[in-house]
């Protein structure tokens, strides 16, 4: 489906496009460093480490992100607010940053990666809070 005309003539497409770009960057980062993530995870395994099947949730997250952004860009749903899309894009961008940090395999690098993941989680929560997604509008 082509972009809705009102999106093409304004700047409203920037938010969903930024989210899609950040999600693509996150996927690319994961693809480049995926082997190292597995090796480091095995090296620093803890009794409370989740089973590999747990991470299938990321398939749901990326798929629903693609669907939501496509719906915004085609005018099927209203475009989310600027801050919502900014925080959402920031969360995905931080998901792209943690993987090279995790590759350092030192305690300091792992702490840095954990800090970046916490910042990404905070950005995602701020986006949900900004959109007031749990409230009737």
How would you portray this structure in words?
The chain is mostly helical and 137 residues long. 71% of the residues lie in helices and 0% in strands. The chain is built from five helices and no strands. Helix 2 packs antiparallel against helix 3 (57-73), helix 2 packs parallel to helix 4 (82-102) and helix 4 (82-102) packs antiparallel against helix 5.
* Beta-strand residue percentage: under 5%
Number of helices: 5
The overall strand count is 0
Unreliable stretches covering 5 or more consecutive residues: none
Helix content: over 70%
The largest β sheet comes out as: none
- Derived from helix and strand composition plus strand pairing, the structural class reads mainly alpha
Order of helices and strands: HHHHH
Throw out a few tags for this protein.
about 140 residues; mainly alpha; 5 helices; single chain
Describe the secondary-structure layout.
Layout: H1 5-8, H2 14-43, H3 57-73, H4 82-102, H5 107-131
Helix pairs in contact: 2-3, 2-4, 4-5
Put the structure in a nutshell.
The protein is mostly helical. The protein has 5 helices and no strands.
């Amino acid at each position: 489906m082509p972009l809705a005309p009102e999106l093409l003539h304004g700047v409203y497409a920037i938010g969903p496009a930024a989210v899609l770009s950040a999600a693509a960057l996150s996927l690319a980062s994961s693809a480049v460093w995926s082997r190292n993530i597995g090796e480091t995870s095995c090296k620093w395994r803890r009794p409370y480490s989740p089973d590999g099947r747990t991470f299938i949730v990321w398939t749901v997250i990326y798929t629903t992100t693609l669907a939501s952004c496509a719906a915004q860009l085609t005018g099927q749903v209203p475009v989310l607010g600027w801050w919502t899309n900014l925080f959402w894009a920031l969360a995905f961008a931080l998901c792209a940053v943690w993987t090279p940090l995790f590759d350092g395999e030192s305690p300091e690098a792992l702490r840095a990666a954990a800090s970046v993941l916490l910042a990404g989680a905070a950005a995602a929560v701020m986006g949900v809070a900004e959109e007031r997604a749990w409230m009737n509008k």
